Amino acid sequence: MRDRLLLTVHGVSSDSRRLAELAGRVADSTGHVPRAVNFGEQRPLRTINKQLRFLIFKMVSLDLRLARASSQHATGEAPVIDVIAHSFGTLAVYHALVDGGAAIGKLVLLGSIMDQRVEWDSLVDAGRVECPPLNIVRPFDGVVRHSRWVTGDVSGVRGFSPNGTCRPIDHFEDGGHNDYENDADLIARFLTGGLTRSQAIKEGDFSRALGRRRRAWLALTRCLRFR
Amino acid sequence: MTNRHNKSSQSPTQGNQWLAELKYGSADGETRLSTYRISFRFFFVFAQATVVSALVSHQSGIAFVPGLDLVALGFSCFLTAFFALLERSDARQRSVASWQTALLTEIASKEAALQFLEGGSPDA
Questions:
Q1: Which of A55, A156, A193, B61 has the highest local Cβ count within 10 Å?
Q2: Total domains in the fold of chain A
């Protein structure tokens, strides 16, 4: 029997237990076995330390590979590993896929600080990830917006830029950096194949649904380029 | 005389415990105090004393050199802030160092487990 694992990779200052609870609720409806990658929580600015970042990336890639190896060792079959990554965890998963030799199934990004111009085609062709990933974008997410100062144009504010044949599903919604409790149904639908690109809320639809003042504020903050 | 003798004979190490903690940290041995942390403790006491004396001098109007109390007050505030910042920076470095140590330990155990399960190199 092939295992279906749902791994959560938390952010630096986010609560890993809350993310694990979300994974638990998703797993209740999808039949996954939830597991959490935990590399400890600290203040976000401490990840400026390069050695620390390298260790976190290495730890996440080892965790992903270990989950696959242990499940394969127990059942004799390679498991399906789907991943929910939040905040700094999205960057850690990206490095695990690119440099760490990890391979996963479906990928869900919450508050992503991955670069907008990620080349998904090369990752998909190498069998590292299934296409398309789901990127839940919150344009009012202050943490992600300010992370642009450090990481450049991140995909958690405006989604991924069209690049190649594999285009992630960008789903726009309102809320802050840690307001992902209500996303369990959406993620479960995505993991079971019930969420299509046309059902995801697009940037234009999201902006039109906002009030005039919030729309103006969003437009203003987009005009201000800090880098 | 007897008391003093008893005190020193009861536990020779206890008499220097405060100094040992100041130099080498608590008994768990994890936190070794650096030079500026020791300096911070001394200067903090010194600064408090200076602030109090400056305030008393200012209030009572007794000052040998006019304006010296305010200079002393400013200087002690500067020293306190300076050493507080050093202390904070030291605490941050120790926190990052302990996080790194924990990560390294966990990475080593995971690499060993992966090597056992995959039967090859963890960097493969």
A1: A156
A2: 1
| SS3 of residue A95 by DSSP | helix
* B122 pLDDT higher than 60: no
Helix axes B35-60, B68-118, angle to 10 degrees: 150
Q: Is the peptide bond before A132 cis (omega within 30 degrees of 0)?
A: yes
Can you tell me the ipTM of this complex?
Answer: 0.76
Cα distance between residue A108 and residue A106, in whole Å: 7
pLDDT at A164: 86
Is 60 exceeded by the pLDDT of residue B18? no
Domain that holds residue B13: 1-33
pLDDT at B91: 73
CB contacts of A46 in chain B (<8 Å) are 92, 95-96, 99
> How close does chain B come to A29, measured CA to CA in Å?
30
Chain B contact present for A49, CB below 8 A? yes
A40 in B contact zone (CB under 8 Å): yes
Nearest-neighbour CA in chain B from A14: distance (Å): 16
pLDDT band, residue B9 (cuts 50/70/90): very low
- Record: contact B114-A62, CB cut-off 8 A: yes
Strands A33-37 and A107-110 turn out to be unpaired
**Mean pLDDT in order along chain A per 10 residues (227 residues):** 86 82 92 89 70 88 92 88 93 92 93 90 93 92 79 84 89 89 92 89 87 83 60
Burial B60-93 (b: 16+ CB within 10 A, else e): eeeeeeeeebeebbeebeebbeebeebbeebeee
CATH of the domain at A156: 3.40.50.1820
Which structural domain, as residue segments, surrounds residue A52?
4-223
Question: Does B17 fall in a domain?
Answer: yes
Q: How far is A45 from chain B (nearest CA, A)?
A: 11
